[in-house]
Amino acid sequence: MTGNHFFDPFEPRNQAQRYQQYAHFRSQTPLAWGRPPRPGLGNGVYVFSHEAVTGALKHQSLLQAPLAAAYATQRRQLLSDGIFGMVSHAVLFSDPPRHGVLRRPLTSALTPPAAQQHAERMRHRAESLAAECARRGQFDMVTDFATPYIAGGLLELLGFSESDIDEIKQRTGQLAGELDITDKPPRPGGQSAAYKALTRIVQRNLDRPRFSSGTLSKHLGDLVGSGRWQRGELIPNLVFLLFAGQETAIDALGNAVLALAHHPGAWRAVENGDVTSAEAVDEFLRYDPSLQGAAFRVTSEAVDLCGTTIPPSTPVVALLGSANRDPAAFGDPDRLHLHRRPIRRSRTFGHGIHICAGQHLARHELAIALETLMAHWPAWRVDESGVVERETISFRGHTRIPVTIKQAESAETPTAEGSDPGPLP
Question: What CA–CA distance (Å, rounded) separates 32 from 46?
Answer without folding.
Answer: 5
